[in-house]
Specification:
The chain has 250 residues and is an alpha+beta fold. The chain is built from 4 helices and 15 strands. The longest helix has 24 residues. The protein binds 2-amino-4-trifluoromethylsulfanyl-butyric acid and cobalt (II) ion (CO) (2 copies). The site of one cobalt (II) ion has 6 residues, from β4 and β5. One cobalt (II) ion binds next to loops.
Amino acid sequence: MPGRHLIRTEAEIDGIRKAGHLSSEILDMVGEKIGLGITTAEINKWVHEYTVSHGAIPASLDYYGYPASVCTSINEVVCHGIPEDRKLKDGDIINVDVTSILNGFYGDTSRMYIIGEASEEARKLVQVTKECLNIGIEQVKPFNRVGDIAYAIEQHAEKYGFSVVQDFGGHGIGLKFHEDPFIAHYGNKDEGMVLVPNMVFTIEPMLNAGRYQCKVLADEWTAVTVDGSLSAQWEHTVRVTEDGAEILTK
Ligand code: MF3
Ligand code: CO
Ligand code: CO
C-alpha cells in the first residue's frame, strides 16, 4: 500500500484539478493556433504568456535547468524537446507537454498534433498511443496495481507492432512536479504498488514506431529514438476515485 504521503486531501485535489484544467485549456489554445510554418519557439511564447496571464507558473521553466515553458517533441523526438526556431512542416507529428503550477498545485498533460498530411504510419502511431493512454486510465481503480496499467498499455501497443519506451514514465504529482510512484508503461499485471483512493499521478505512454530504445542528445534534454523511428505520447493527470479514475487535466 502507498504511504499516506501519496494520498491527497480533498482540498489538494481541488487545487490540482484547477491547475490541470488550466494546462488542458492551454493545449486547447495551442490546438487552435498550431499549424504549418509555426515554430516551436512561438508555441513556447503562447504557452508562457497564457500561463502567467492566468496567474500560474510554467513548471518546466528552470526545472533542473530546463530552458523553456513547454516541451515540444517532433517526429523522432520521444520527449523533452526544447522549443527552437525550426518551422513545423507538412507531415510532422508533434507532442506539446504543458505543466502549470497554480496556487502551488501541479497539473501535467500533453497531446499530439498532426501538421498537414501525415503518413498512414504516423497517424496510426498517434491514434494507438492515445488509445494506450485511455486503456491505461481504464485500469485505474482501487486495489488494482500500477503493473495493471503498464501491462494493459504494452499489450495494446504490441498489437499494432509499436514498442513502448522504458526510460521515461508517469509519476506521482500534485504538490511537486515528480513524486512517487513511478508509473511504467510496460511490465506485468498484478505487480507493483496498490492503488488506493485519492492517489494522484500521471499516465503518459510514449510509443515508438520502431524499437523502444532512446538516447538523450548533447543538450542533455532532448530524448530521441535510437533508430530514428517516429515516437508519440499523450498524457493526463488522474486521481484514483472510490471506484475508478477521474481525469484532472480535462
Ligand atoms: N512534463 C514532463 C512530464 O510529463 C516533464 C518535463 S520536465 C522538463 O513529466 F523539464 F523537461 F520540462
Ligand atoms: Co508527466
Ligand atoms: Co508532461
